[in-house]
Amino acid sequence: MEDLTLLLGFAGIFAFSAPLIFAVVGETLIERAGIVNLAVNGTILLTAMAGFAVAARTGSLVLGFLVGALIGAAVAWLIAFSSITLKQSQVAIGFVLTLLTRDLAYFLGNPYMGLAGPRLPSWHFPLLKDVPFLGILFFQHDWMTYLSYLVIFLGWWWIFHTRPGLILQGIGERPAAAYARGTDVNRLRYLYSVVGGALIGLAGPIYSLSVKAGWKGTISGLDGLGWIALSITIFGGWNPLRAAFGVYLFGFLQWLGLVLQPRLPGIPSQVLQVAPFPLMILTLLLVNIGNAEWVERTLAALPDRWRHFLKRLLRALRANPPASLGVPFEPE
Amino acid sequence: MKVELRHIHKHFGPVHANNDITLSIPAGTIQGLLGENGAGKSTLMKILSGFLRADSGEILLDDRRVIIRSPADAIRHGIGMLHQDPLDFPPLRVIDNFLLGQQAKGIFLQRNQALEAFQRLAQQYDFSLDPFAYVENLTVGERQQLEILRLLWSGVRVLILDEPTTGISAAQKQKLFATLRRLAEEGRTVIFVSHKLEEVEELCHRVAVLRAGRLVGEMHPPYDTRKLVEMMFGREIQAAPRASFAASIPVLRLQQMTLEDVRLRMTAVDLDVHAGETIGLAGMEGSGQDLFLRACAGLVRPVAGRVLVGEQDLTGKAYHAYKRAGVEFLPAARLEEGLVPGLTLSEHFLLVSERQGFFLQRAYAQRLAEEQIALYNIKGRPHSPVESLSGGNQQRALLALLRQPLSLLLLEHPTRGLDVESSIYIWSLLKERCRQGTAILFISSDLEEILQYSDRVLVFFSGKVSPPLEASALSVEELGGLIGGKGWEKFGVQRES
């Protein structure tokens, strides 16, 4: 019995992580194209509220998700428009939009606070659900969770195994070279902004229509998740597979906090709740620390064997951002 | 394909970069395009390859008028350009670089098909490139070969090469020339842009010379070098005679220094550098000379051994300690690492001036800048932003910014991309420093430059370092062989596995 509860809790990580998967893969696509969308946090809040409101009004879950995707795409488009066409700072506009959308969510969401609304039913995968262990872990969730698996795989496959994906890598890495090869860099940047934005926009309704059903305003507990999505995008080294690992790791740490809490009465509950955040910072640090000059300097002073081991370790962890991330491209 | 340019004009603000240029190039020829820096060669070629649009004038391909708005249009018409700094994707693999941007249907990457085409072409032109290597680990010469293969696969009939011999080895250059001759025999048109006379004379079927935006003349073989020089510069140029200012005071001593980076390991190097001496570091790109130079500047920490500057042991100390001891390092990427784009010349002089204090003294900076501009013959004004200066003038500005006195000056490709006149001027400034007792260590891929200006030479080959060789006793051929790994037995250096 104890084992089954544990397993169920563990399986919950996959369902609970679905929205972050969508957000992280969406952001990965946008950043691969060379644009930074900093409005993820606000987008998730606004789409969670709007998706829930629309679904509650119309009774249609599909419409709820659709509205989320549209809003996400619109916010991302606005960032692309102001940076590519209006030549404004992506960072500034992203920040302003993330604040604006957040406040809009709280303000416009007032009438829907605490309302009962529709919820995405769980749907167990036929046959696969009965596979021992794995069935419970992966296949007794709802549709959006299954879609999140697909999004991870598709995102990875698209970037690394298709012709357009190769061009996507190119425009984020060195747009001038992609342009020299006949690519319309800015058109593609718009395209990936909108597609990635739509994925981010789906994260909100997945919370409000499934994972944390309903809209509870500021106590929904969704504020901050968008920033986590941004940092996991970096942790993932702009690779959807590695990013998915980061999302599940984060989910696992949070779950661990909940499980350990009753067993460790000596530790204030806040510590365990907050613990995943500094742990994420530490992992982020490990990913990028190999690039620092002082690290190289320190390593050079170590004895041979240690140096080789540490260098290899850091190199394996290291992730380099697309070289033109956040840099606007102008054909001469 | 026959290429014709008619009455091309292009302005950049007040600068008339291309002034009524008319040039006709028949199919199957190698056309040389000569001119000093800023003569308008690159502008003209960027117009032909779609990066820039001419203000007026027309382009004809095989007698048909075409309009080229973007590189995509140029590619469609079969025009491909090989840029001086290869426009490729360093973190990607060779094969993916080869594939990226090829016009093909479908979203699937047909890597196998591409691999076949790649290997067929590579064999045809005798290039040995590993399709799965990462481009960032290739030398500039190899990256060029990759670009050529890629352009051939996409079906170019006009190939433009912008200063292609900068930064590649002698062997790679010979291979490049052989390839270009073959492409011309196959009926393609090759346009070879360069400021190096010998190369143009060796390779090209015909030469056009640009000066200050105008086409000043064309020439067919046999070439008259003196006349070409005159067309390029409007007068004759002469190099300064050799000069040596080496004294016996050591300014830098390396004792059993061992260096290491991702690709190579250099063991137990010993060297004494004396005041006023010039030492050239020769080797193919990535053979370890850049690592060596950075270690002398304190930018890379040796994993073993000692580094002494003057009498001080600075092993493992940071760059600032080296700077205080009188060491300066001038990197190859002038604008990225050495100057601050966006700041003006006078602001640069202010940054390094000895007058400290909280407030900016504009009038003082202005005076200082004017003095230095006159002294170093920089073509620019105190309020010119550094990025608006030409490469040669940026290099002069960097030299002007160096402190006086200086015990050791480390230079990476001091004259890369500069024309003969600017190079000679830069070296006269450097030799003046030597006369005042500064020792110079410099990297160059130009063997003649190394032999001309060095007292001693160090040769690097895949992490091995030769003992210091007397420059006066070396020939270009000998040095070229050493760079390629030939003739090392006489130093008693064993090959490390």
List descriptors.
A: 332 residues, mainly alpha, ABC transporter involved in vitamin B12 uptake, BtuC, 15 helices, B: 497 residues, alpha/beta, Rossmann fold
Write down the Rg of chain B: 24 Å
Number of distinct helices of chain A: 15
The fraction of residues assigned to DSSP E strands of chain A is under 5%
The appropriate CATH architecture of the largest domain in chain B is 3-Layer(aba) Sandwich
Distance between the termini of chain A: 68 Å
Largest interface: which pair? A-B, 31 and 34 residues
How would you classify the quaternary structure? heterodimer
Give the strand tally of chain B: 21
CATH architectural designation of chain A: Orthogonal Bundle
As for the number of domains of chain B, it is 2
Whole-number mean pLDDT of chain A: 89
Task: State the helix count of chain B.
Answer: 17
Low-confidence stretches of chain B: none
Total domain count of chain A = 1
State the shape of chain B: globular
Annotated CATH homologous superfamily of the largest domain in chain B:
P-loop containing nucleotide triphosphate hydrolases
User: How would you characterize the largest beta sheet of chain A?
Assistant: none
- Structural class computed from helices and strand pairing of chain B: alpha/beta
Poorly predicted tracts of residues of chain A: none
Would you mind describing this structure in some detail?
The complex is a heterodimer of chains A (332) and B (497). Chain A is an all-alpha fold. In chain A, 71% of the residues lie in helices and 0% in strands. Chain A has helices at 2-32, 40-58, 61-85, 90-108, 134-138, 143-161, 163-173, 175-180, 185-211, 225-235, 240-260, 269-274, 276-288, 293-300, 304-317. Chain A is globular, with a radius of gyration of 21 Å. Chain A starts with a helix and ends in a 15-residue tail after the last helix. Chain B folds into two domains: 3-233, P-loop containing nucleotide triphosphate hydrolases (Rossmann fold, 3-Layer(aba) Sandwich); 250-326 and 403-491, Rossmann fold (3-Layer(aba) Sandwich). Helices cover 33% and strands 24% of the residues of chain B. Chain B is built from 17 helices and 21 strands. In chain B, strands 13, 16, 17, 18, 19, 20 and 21 form a seven-stranded mixed β-sheet that branches. In chain B, strands 6-7-8-3-9-10 form a six-stranded mixed β-sheet, sandwiched between helices. The chains are: A mainly alpha (332), B alpha/beta (497). The A-B interface holds A 161-167, 169-170, 173-174, 176-184, 296-297, 300-301, 304, 307, 315, 320, 323, 331-332 and B 46, 51-52, 70-72, 75-76, 81, 83, 87-92, 96, 99-101, 103-104, 106-109, 260, 262, 300-303, 316, 318.
